[in-house]
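Complex 425.
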Amino acid sequence: MVNINMPEYRISVDQIQPGVFVRLEKTSWFDHPFLFNNFMIKDDEQIALLKKLGITELICIPEKSNVLPLRPTEKRAPVIVKDTELSQDIIDHLWDIKRERTERLREKKKHLAICEERFNACIRTFDTILKGMLGGNGHSVEKTLAFVGNLSEYFLADRESTLHLMNVMDHAESAYSHPMNVAVLSMMVGKEAGLSLEDMTTLGMGALFHDIGKSGIPKKLLKKRGELTKPEQELIAQHSALGAKMLNDIEIFPKAAARIVAHHHERMDGSGLPEHLKGDSIDRLARIVAIADAYDNHCNHPDQTESLTPYLALSFMFGQQKRFFDVEILAMFIRCLGVYPPGTVVQLSNGAIGMVMAVNPKNQLNPSVVLYDSDVPKKEALIVDLADEPDLRVEKSIRLAHLPQEVFEYLSPRTRITYFVDQNM
Ligand SMILES: [Fe+2]
Ligand SMILES: [Fe+2]
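Predicted structure with fe (ii) ion bound:
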């Protein structure tokens, strides 16, 4: 790489040589056959293609270049490139690849819409069930068991699954998206941990109702912002025991799931609540829910300005909070979410900025990323599957506060980070 402090600058197409990293400017993504607007010049053939496309000027990005462009007065030794007819073949071929990618992108978006619809259906079902449970309707437990049983079977299906970022904007839904999120994340870990169908269902039930005891805590207190007094903290801490009691009072509610609810704020080092249990005395499934719950609370803090990005939430939990959690389960959790979990804004190795949309735990270094490109309308934003792009990788995560306003608005990081799982086709 050349001097990284050098700013970008405009060059003529005659100045480029292999190894120069360029950005196509004044050319819409739709008007050129390359897959990206930013790339490193590979060979002389590519330079000939740029000329053939009528591109006369480009932006050089020294930070990413292996060599600097020629000076305007400098001349390269003449290079032999294939004849123009062959170049046209190459251009046609590039267009074919780009068209195929665009088609795949369309399919992917359709698939994502179906996944989002299924997620919303789950939220609606959960809403009805929860209201029924709180209203003392015994049938609700049966309905929940059937609902969670289906989810468990879905999770355990013998196919690879992908964790997707969902588009939850509706305020009313956000009340249900915390328990749903905790359930989805817990069950994803449950699959990774090799749980049986029965344990998965117990885990799902415990996760969905982990905070049901909050219905017995004054709303005003739950919504209070800022420091809580000691008595207020103690009152809120009672929601685990309160929830477990409510559920144990329902005869057919699985006792093992109520135990998860009782233990979900216990911590491995004994600093948790309400019983200060330590290590193995905490229910194993509750240790899974504790991690998913803490993660969701970090990402979706009631005070938005306090929310952490998914990447920072994981770093925080694996760093400062490691002693609270079962380290083996925490490692599984990170394996499921990837190093850059969906919802993280990242910079790619070609300089592009995007947001991680989905990750396949089997290929977590290569997530799907939706790219910012001011030339492409937001609705048609390009999604790249890094698994398909051997030359591209995630370089770093970017803090939202560091994003230029127009990039922030384009990628519109969600008001809530909500996940759902999709089985790969
Ligand atoms: Fe809780
Ligand atoms: Fe919670």
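Residues 178, 210-211, 293 surround fe (ii) ion (ligand 2) (CB under 6 Å).
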